From TrEMBL, chain A:
This is Succinate dehydrogenase iron-sulfur subunit. Keywords: 2Fe-2S, 3Fe-4S, 4Fe-4S, Iron, Iron-sulfur, Metal-binding, Oxidoreductase, Tricarboxylic acid cycle. GO terms for biological process: respiratory electron transport chain; tricarboxylic acid cycle. Residues 162-184 form the 4Fe-4S ferredoxin-type domain. Its cofactor is [3Fe-4S] cluster; [2Fe-2S] cluster; [4Fe-4S] cluster. Pfam families: Fer2_3 (PF13085), Fer4_10 (PF13237). It is an enzyme of class 1 (oxidoreductase). Pathway: Carbohydrate metabolism; tricarboxylic acid cycle. It comes from the Bacteria. Residues 27-121 form the 2Fe-2S ferredoxin-type domain.
Automatic annotation (TrEMBL), chain B:
The lineage of its organism: Bacteria, Bacillati, Actinomycetota, Actinomycetes, Micrococcales. This is Succinate dehydrogenase flavoprotein subunit. InterPro entries: FAD-dep_OxRdtase_2_FAD-bd, FAD/NAD-bd_sf, FRD_SDH_FAD_BS, Fum_R/Succ_DH_flav-like_C_sf, Fum_Rdtase/Succ_DH_flav-like_C, SdhA/FrdA/AprA, Succ_DH/fumarate_Rdtase_cat_sf, Succ_DH_flav_su_fwd. The keyword Electron transport applies. Pathway: Carbohydrate metabolism; tricarboxylic acid cycle; fumarate from succinate (bacterial route): step 1/1. Flavinylated by SdhE, about 5% flavinylation occurs in the absence of SdhE. The modification Tele-8alpha-FAD histidine is found at H42. It catalyses: a quinone + succinate = fumarate + a quinol. Its cofactor is FAD.
Length: 260, 595
């Protein structure tokens, strides 16, 4: 519940230089993009673009600059451009990240910045992969609240502490950065993958849900949680800061103890 | 070209579309078409909350919520619609909780509520805790929960199917007074499969448009790249009116220079705005509720501080959102995402430093006119059988001249649900309307024209000019001169658009082609918005005319209805006809709007 706060002062002394400022610096980069245009060339190839960018620009801005000023055929998904819609997960300098959340100035701009599609899902064109297998795994863990008995008239009661148990895994935006960073998923496309397990966790540990056992049974499958080798790639890749490996460990623990 | 047959086709898979699909999918054979994947929709970017008078933490009732909505919209809200929304808000929130939405909780375990701009106790006496929320990712949780429930109910999605045309037929009909008119009836839609470049025609008894907003008309916007007003544009080109397009909301707190949204919930949790003197300037503009005044008032106050020289930064072009007096723990638990945005994108630490902010183009109050049953109108009162609209695409009108914060998440749930039920019910009794001959002819010609064009104009360059112009001239403050200048640019761009060409000539994921099509909608909508803004010679809500600074109820207490009409000229713009539609007034007579 919101706490009652005293009114802040009507006027304060601002620190000098507050809000940052000065001219936004520009710099030159080489964007090295893994191209794949199946209608014109059979093989994927690297293409370099030399660009002048600003200090506040993200990798997505560089991709847009290529598409809008140089080569309109460069294809990638994007929508919100600030890290909440999950469209633009890609491999940037070999690491899965969201292009809209990766500032160029935070990368080493003295070397080419490599951008390629996420791995483990069928490549369609340039940075675009077929997301269907990813969403199929998600759907299989029954990602919706399951309850028994009559619906209450008002809301279900849940304490703030009960709510906090699964808070971390509610942040998932289904961008696939975690799943497509997982070496197990690369070699075994049948593995549910971290994102599906994260979303199962979100319901297994929700005090209102009554189908935890069913979900644990699904994840106890040979393609389930036991395939996880705890390499932590997924936790590092998650743009939402979800502790993915921890969530997977909690699901493993729950299967073993069946405390849920 | 493939032809599919469904009882109900829903265009758009954001909050309104998926809320509709959950209802419709359980009653009739339903398909949802989206140009994205459902979970990418911009509902997911909404942050602060969804208001409903649950009275979980303090006294509240839906009548106060109705009043706030009407007053917030500067009295051009249709009051019957506002009443429906405020009443049904309570069940809308409870429905989401039952679907699994993880709301923040009170110590008793009930849904917690917080303050939000313009939402007040007892008709404006003080700010009230009405917004139900899940940290500062309420929209994300709504989008996820609705998608989860679509999965549960096996809703059929056609992902990355871009709807480009609405198929309707016209037949002669007679009004009660015996006069003849052309009655439109819906037959289906034409869509473009982005993965393959193939056209798919969907024949349907009912069609629901829930395709979101058009914020990309502007450069500085909280909106996603994909919010290009497709649904409104298709309706307009099909001869349907667009209502109240002059009213566009600028959200006060966009990250300066970037436009990325920082929720009003921050101010609901106690954050305040300061100018370069360190002054909490909202005390001067809205003495009672200060920083929690409605968005139009706060945005105007901020723009005014900047133009009077009290802006911050090297160019004195923004103000500051100050959270530094709040407990870091409180901020971390209630506003984790927006503080991360400030760190990631501006490198500012909100615990210790105030955050640079400036108004950002956020929300179209206007759209495709509907009645409270979400049926689309072809004129002021003639319903088009089988055609529905909900959410930002639609104008029912609950937001009037200025939407209150949280009322959009409410709108999509209340009217999305209504649309789903109504569309399925209609489909149960109706027959399919026969498709026109060559239903894809128009779209095929449009796409082939773009693909084969050897023109010299560039899509990105035209779009940039449009967005820069709208940012500069159709802003928080506008006048005849700025609007006329904007229209000159828009008319020039519309001419040049006929000469655009694209580089990607392929069929697979041709997003170059997609952007060219989207630009066409943006140009149409910018023209309508600006023409309607020029015509409304008064100031009301989000539409502030410096040359007409007062509200003029005598002449302008009316909705505007813009039609594509090649025989008409409005404000010097040929091809647009502007009509008016009365505002529905039930309980509240217009009063002076003070906070």
């Amino acid at each position: 519940m919101s706490t009652e706060l005293p009114e802040p002062p009507s006027k304060i002394e601002l620190k000098a230089g507050v809000g940052g400022g000065g001219e936004i610096p520009t710099f030159n980069i080489t964007l090295r993009v893994r191209r794949y245009l199946p209608e014109t060339t059979a093989e994927a190839y690297w293409e370099d673009f030399k660009l002048t960018m600003y200090g506040t620009d993200r990798v997505l801005d560089a991709l847009h600059k290529v598409k809008w000023d140089h080569d309109g055929s460069l294809s990638f998904r994007r929508s919100c451009a600030h890290g909440v819609c999950g469209s633009d997960a890609m491999r940037i300098n070999g690491r899965n990240r969201l292009a809209c959340k990766t500032l160029l100035k935070d990368l080493d701009t003295s070397k080419p910045i490599t951008v390629e599609a996420i791995k483990g899902l069928p490549l369609e064109k340039d940075l675009i992969v077929d997301m269907e297998p990813f969403f199929q795994s998600y759907r299989e863990i029954m990602p919706f609240l399951i309850t028994k008995g009559h619906e209450p008239t008002k809301e279900r009661i849940q304490s703030a502490e009960e709510r906090a148990v699964f808070d971390d895994t509610t942040k998932c935006i289904l961008c696939a950065a975690c799943t497509s960073s997982c070496p197990v998923f690369w070699t075994d496309g049948q593995y549910f993958g971290p994102a599906a397990i994260v979303n199962a966790h979100r319901f297994i540990f929700d005090s209102r849900d009554e189908a935890g056992d069913m979900r644990l049974e699904i994840l106890n499958d040979k393609e389930g949680v036991w395939r996880c080798r705890t390499t932590f790639n997924c936790s590092e890749a998650c743009p939402r800061g979800i502790q993915v490996t921890k969530a997977i460990a909690e699901v493993k623990q729950a299967i073993l103890s069946r405390t849920v | 070209m493939q032809v599919h047959k469904y009882d109900v086709v829903i265009v758009g898979a954001g909050g309104a579309g998926m809320r509709a699909a959950i209802e419709s999918g359980q009653r009739a054979r339903t398909a949802v078409l989206t140009k994205l994947y459902p979970t990418r929709s911009h509902t997911g970017a909404a942050q602060g909350g969804m208001c409903a008078a649950l009275a979980n933490v303090e006294e509240d009732n839906w009548e106060w919520h109705t009043f706030d909505t009407v007053k917030g919209g500067d009295y051009i809200v249709d009051q019957d619609a506002a009443e429906v929304m405020a009443k049904e808000a309570i069940d809308a929130v409870l429905d989401l909780e039952k679907m699994g939405l993880p709301f923040n909780r009170t110590p008793e375990g009930k849904i917690d509520q917080r303050r939000f701009g313009g939402h007040t106790r007892d008709h404006g006496k003080a700010a009230v805790r009405r917004a139900c929320y899940a940290a500062d990712r309420t929209g994300h949780m709504i989008l996820q929960t609705l998608y989860q429930n679509c999965v549960k109910h096996n809703v059929e999605f056609y992902n990355e199917y871009y709807v480009l045309d609405l198929l309707m037929v016209e037949e002669e009909a007679f009004r009660e007074d015996g006069t003849a008119y052309q009655q439109k009836r819906v037959a289906g839609v034409v869509s473009y499969d982005l993965a393959t470049g193939e056209l798919h025609v969907f024949q349907a008894k009912s069609v629901i448009f829930a395709s979101g907003g058009a914020g990309k008309v502007f450069k500085t916007t909280s909106n996603a790249h994909t919010l290009t007003g497709d649904g409104m544009g298709i309706a307009f080109r099909s001869g349907l009116p667009l209502e109240d397009m002059e009213f566009f909301q600028f959200h006060p707190t966009g990250l300066a220079g970037l436009g990325i949204l920082l929720t009003e919930g921050a101010r609901g949790e106690g954050a305040i705005l300061r100018n370069s003197d360190g002054e909490r300037f909202m005390e001067r503009y809205a003495p009672t509720i200060k920083d929690l005044a409605p968005r139009d008032i706060v945005a105007r106050a901020m723009a005014n501080e900047v133009r009077e020289g009290r802006g911050c930064g090297p160019n004195k072009d923004y103000v500051l959102l100050d959270l530094t007096h709040l407990e870091p723990e409180h901020i971390e638990s209630k506003l984790p995402d927006i503080t991360e945005f400030a760190r990631t994108y501006l490198g500012v630490e909100p615990f210790t430093d105030p955050v640079p902010v400036y108004p950002t183009a956020h929300y179209a109050m206007g759209g495709v006119p509907t009645n409270i049953e979400t049926e689309v109108l072809q004129d002021n009162d003639t319903v088009i059988p089988g055609l529905y609209a909900a959410g930002e695409t639609a104008c029912v009108s609950v937001h009037g001249a200025n939407r209150l914060g949280t009322n959009s998440l409410l709108d999509i749930n209340v009217f999305g649900r209504r649309a789903g039920i109504a569309a399925a019910k209609y489909a149960q009794d109706a027959d399919f309307v026969e498709l026109p001959e060559n239903p894809d002819a128009l779209v095929t010609a449009q796409l082939e024209g773009l693909l084969s064009s050897t023109g010299t104009e560039n899509v990105a360059a035209l779009r940039k000019t449009l967005q820069d112009t709208m940012d500069a001239k159709v802003q928080v403050f506008r006048d005849e001169k700025s609007l006329t200048e904007a229209l000159e640019v828009i008319e020039d761009l519309r001419k040049r658009y006929k000469n655009v060409s694209i580089q990607d000539k392929g069929k697979r994921f041709n997003l170059d082609l997609l952007e060219a099509v989207e630009l066409g909608f943006l140009l149409d909508l910018a023209e309508v918005m600006t023409t309607a803004a020029l015509h409304r010679k008064e100031s009301r809500g989000g539409h502030y005319r410096e040359d007409y600074p007062n509200r003029d109820d005598e002449n302008f207490m009316i909705h505007s209805m813009a039609y594509r009409d090649h025989n008409a000229t409005t404000e010097g713009i040929s091809g647009i006809r502007l009509e008016t539609k009365p505002v529905v007034v039930t309980r509240y007579q217009p009063m002076e709007r003070k906070y």
